[in-house]
Write a structure and sequence with these properties.
The complex is a heterodimer of chains A (565) and B (180). Chain A is of the alpha/beta class and 565 residues long. Chain A is built from 23 helices and 14 strands. In chain B, 37% of the residues are buried. Classes of the chains: A alpha/beta (565), B mainly alpha (180).
Chain lengths: 565, 180
């Protein structure tokens, strides 16, 4: 339970508050438009559809304000940096920005549906009333203001269709355009598209510019009409609503006068839009700063390591940067976890060739064109670093690091940093023992990490502390041919697959066994468990951390930290 | 964007368009709007499109994640052979299905989105993409543990090589030290 509160408590609070505000806005504005007297005559035509359209509109205003904020990563970095006094968990909340962005997007989609459905009813009813030739209240109301701007019914002709009105009014046309933009943004940001065809997602998502412009001008037609205050004073709807034939002839019922409500959306979204413009300008400015590539290393399986230097760049472990290479693509920025330690005088990333852009990087900086490197250094730009530092790893006496597949990348930074701190006997380092579990299907893509482990192994032996780092590599994608090969070379000192001293395991780890042995080896300590990997693994680990943490406060305790590196 | 399989995005877009068509259709019929017959059509067409697009096709590169429960629909879709495999057919089909929705406001949004999906499918067809069902992943070869669990069939002491039967496992012959 305490693990859940530690990891999710603040998120749950944020979501509850956010939902609460949404519900409040919806109910408040629904009430306003459903019961306020200035809309009485409007409701005679539309019924409750008016309130059903205006309530989600208010929520849409609120959520469109929110949606731009989590993606202002420089602003978030600034907030994070200035929050030194806050507890780490508060800062970690800022890392869940994309999750929050998605939640707000779903809410926008939901409210858009309600808003559009309600307006479908509104338009239909407005049209029906305008075409009606009877003397019913709604028909009479529709004829009010025939020659001037004091009308109630925004459909001024009886020879038209709702579809025509939609495409010839500002509100209707902008509504259609921004809804289309929203739908295209959503369909191109599903997991499948985003993870496999990032460029489609990235470019389509810039439709948000059209979305926000359309959103701001959506209301300038002022077609949500209410009775004016002056008219309310002289024309009492309760008395006059049944005397439509006498309107204008008797002193108690002059013809009612209507006006449109002023557009409100810009008041909500103007500030975030300005902030976001600043954010993009800041990114542009930072991208102009020169980045010097001190070394480019090609690793097996088309992995490119870039070591770079940039003036004023300060990183911490577990952070990531965005890289842009104009010679490959002017507009694309791609995120990569930093694999160097802050103690080194350069910063590095490992880029695996997995798509158009990364292939391009590999061709440009690595590949076989070594001669090209010498006299033609393509420019790259770097934005960052972003993300909360994973300093927690240094604060536990015993740290268990679990990386699955590519999730092992941030641990490269952590391990290197721990090693530098250990060598210098840095006081900030409380760690005495590290367990590293590295799980992947095959090691080919991560041989650079195996190299790192090998060099750490050597360093530790030289310092006489071979037990500091205990790592286990689990290969989950082995087949019988490999098994045969391994059987043959069983007796060799180093592992046949990785060349490391500690042998490779096959299949998935038995977490019960592992946690049990760690708990026994460190009976009175708090053990920090760090995972960078898929959700099912997180669940399994959470169960184990709960199971093997003793209730006795002096006993062994496991703290589970799931990071979305 | 050379490596993008447009059909994947077209599929998401068409599925969304089908859903929008259904919602618009339901509103039009429930509200008894003028032209509600087009709304009724919208519901029927929308459901058909959602059923057709729900099974995700196999990607050319990498593994494809199935949508939950799509195998049954995939079997049905596969039955139609080239009609469903070919994306030109789908592009034309969606374009035609979209047209009647344009006659009524409630279904207009579905129409436009379906039109966009049709265009993306056309792009996919031009790039020679095809729909194919995702086969259930066969287990990687036979169970890796199987050969290990069998006890050795020819344990030592063994007769000399000349009189030995053909060994089951190459490994066994390597492991046993040959006495010269």
């Amino acid at each position: 339970m305490s693990n859940w509160v530690l990891n999710h408590g603040l998120s749950a609070l944020v979501i509850v508050v956010w939902l609460g505000i949404n519900i409040f806005l919806f109910v408040y504005y629904f009430h306003f438009y459903e019961y306020n007297t200035v809309f009485y005559y409007t409701r005679q035509i539309t019924g409750s559809a008016l309130a059903w359209a205006r309530a989600p509109a208010a929520c849409l205003n609120f959520n469109c304000l929110l949606i731009l904020l989590p993606v202002c990563r420089n602003l978030l970095s600034f907030l994070r940096g200035s929050c030194v006094c806050c507890r780490c968990s508060a800062r970690k909340q800022l890392d869940k920005n994309i999750t929050f962005h998605k939640l707000v997007a779903y809410m926008i989609a939901l409210h858009t549906v309600i808003h559009i459905v309600a307006h479908l009813f509104n338009f239909e009813r407005f049209n029906d009333s305008q075409q009606s030739t009877g003397q019913t209240l709604d028909a009479v109301l529709s004829r009010v203001g025939h020659n001037d701007s004091r009308w109630l019914n925004p459909i001024r002709s009886d020879q038209t269709t709702p579809t025509y009105i939609t495409f010839t009014t500002i509100a209707g046309l902008t509504g259609v355009i921004i809804t289309l933009a929203l739908i295209l943004m959503i369909t191109s940001s599903t997991d499948t598209i985003r993870r496999s065809y990032f460029e489609v997602f990235w470019f389509t998502h810039h439709l948000f510019v059209i979305f926000f412009i359309g959103l701001v001008i959506h209301g300038i037609g002022r077609i949500v009409r209410q009775q004016t205050e002056e008219s309310m004073e002289v024309h009492d709807y309760l008395f006059c609503q049944n005397r439509t034939s006498e309107w204008g002839s008797i002193p108690e019922c002059p013809i009612p006068v209507f006006k449109g409500g002023a557009p409100m959306t810009w008041k909500w979204v103007l500030a975030p839009m300005i902030l976001y413009v600043f954010e993009r300008l800041l990114r542009l400015y930072r991208s102009q700063q020169s980045v010097v590539i001190t070394k480019a290393v090609v690793h097996p399986s088309k992995v490119l390591e870039l070591q770079m230097q940039m003036k004023g760049f300060k990183m911490e472990v577990g952070q990531y940067i965005f890289i842009n290479c104009p010679s490959i693509s002017q507009l694309e920025w791609h995120p990569f976890t930093l694999t160097s330690a802050p103690e080194e005088d350069f910063f590095s990333v490992h880029i695996r060739s997995a798509g158009d852009w990364t292939d391009g990087m590999f061709e440009t900086f690595g590949g076989d064109k070594f001669e090209r490197l010498k006299h033609m250094q393509p420019r790259i730009s770097v934005d960052g670093p972003f993300g909360t530092a994973s300093e927690d790893a240094f604060h536990y006496e015993v740290s268990v690091l679990i990386g699955a597949g590519i999730g092992v990348t941030p641990f490269a930074s952590v391990l290197k940093s721990i090693w530098y701190k250990y060598e210098k006997s840095d006081a900030g380092l409380r760690t005495k023992k590290i367990y590293l579990f590295w799980i992947c299907r095959e090691t080919q893509a991560f041989e650079w990490f195996a190299d790192l482990l090998r060099s750490l192994e050597n360093n530790m032996e030289q310092l006489g502390k071979p037990d500091f780092l205990n790592y286990k590599l689990f290969l989950t994608g082995w087949d019988s041919a490999q098994a045969v090969h391994i059987k043959v070379h069983f007796d060799k000192e180093t592992d046949v697959v990785t060349g490391l001293k500690q042998k490779t395991h096959y299949g998935r780890p038995n977490w019960d066994k592992e946690f049990h042995s760690i708990a026994q080896a460190h009976p009175k300590t708090t053990v920090g468990v760090f995972l960078c990997g898929p959700q099912p693994l997180a669940k399994a680990l959470e169960e184990c951390t709960n199971k093997y943490s003793e209730i006795n406060p002096l006993g062994v305790h496991f703290h589970f930290n799931k990071e979305n590196f | 964007m050379g490596q993008i399989e447009w059909a994947m995005w077209a599929n998401e877009q068409a599925l969304a368009a089908g859903l929008i068509l259904v919602i618009g259709g339901v509103v039009g019929v429930a509200g008894q709007f003028k032209g509600w017959q087009y709304a009724a059509y919208g519901i029927a067409a929308g459901v058909f499109i959602m059923l057709l697009e729900y099974p995700r096709g196999k990607r050319r590169k990498g593994t494809t994640l199935e949508r939950p429960g799509q195998s049954y629909l995939a079997a049905v879709v596969n039955l139609f052979g080239p009609l469903t495999r070919n994306y030109y057919v789908r592009a034309v089909l969606h374009a035609c299905l979209a047209v009647p929705g344009g006659f009524m406001l409630a279904t207009v949004l579905g129409t436009v989105n379906l039109g966009i999906a049709s265009i993306i499918y056309l792009l996919a067809a031009v790039r020679k993409e095809e729909w194919s069902p995702i086969q259930a992943q066969q287990s990687k070869g036979r169970q890796p543990g199987k050969s290990i669990h069998q006890p050795p069939t020819n344990p030592p002491p063994r007769p000399p090589a000349e009189r030995r039967r053909k060994p089951e496992d190459d490994v066994e012959s390597e492991d046993t030290p040959t006495i010269k």
